[in-house]
């Protein structure tokens, strides 16, 4: 009978060890699962943050491209205005040259009214020339 009791005690010890082993491996698994859960949560947070940064970067890039396009359009428009002003300034100079030529050709034939009128036109053209040359910034 002692042998039987000893055998039963051995079996009970074996079962007890198996239960303890099962419980400790369950805790290890739970700890591993918690670790995996934390890792997944961290990974999701990083992905979300990365996505937000990407969206912000894309918006910034789009804004930069839009600003660059608008600047190019403004530069083109400024170049057209400069060309037009240059053309007008050249026409003013030609007009002044014509007046001087006319005055020289008709120096002997003095008509006071005509001289006064030409002087007024010349004065007006000089003022316009000065205004055009000072109001418009020079191109690069």
Automatic annotation (TrEMBL):
<protein>
    <submittedName>
        <fullName>Uncharacterized protein</fullName>
    </submittedName>
</protein>
<feature type="region of interest" description="Disordered">
    <location>
        <begin position="56"/>
        <end position="80"/>
    </location>
</feature>
């Amino acid at each position: 009978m002692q042998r039987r009791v000893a055998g039963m005690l051995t079996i009970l010890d074996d079962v007890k060890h198996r239960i303890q082993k099962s419980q400790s491996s369950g805790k290890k698994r739970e700890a591993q699962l918690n670790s995996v859960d934390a890792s997944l949560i961290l990974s999701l947070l990083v992905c979300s943050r990365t996505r937000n940064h990407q969206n912000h970067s894309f918006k910034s890039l789009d804004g930069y491209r839009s600003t660059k396009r608008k600047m190019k359009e403004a530069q083109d428009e400024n170049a057209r205005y400069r060309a037009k002003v240059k053309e007008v300034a050249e026409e003013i100079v030609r007009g002044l040259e014509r007046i001087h030529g006319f005055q020289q050709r008709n120096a002997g034939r003095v008509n006071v009214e005509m001289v006064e009128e030409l002087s007024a036109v010349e004065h007006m053209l000089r003022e316009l020339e000065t205004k055009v040359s000072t109001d418009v910034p020079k191109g690069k």
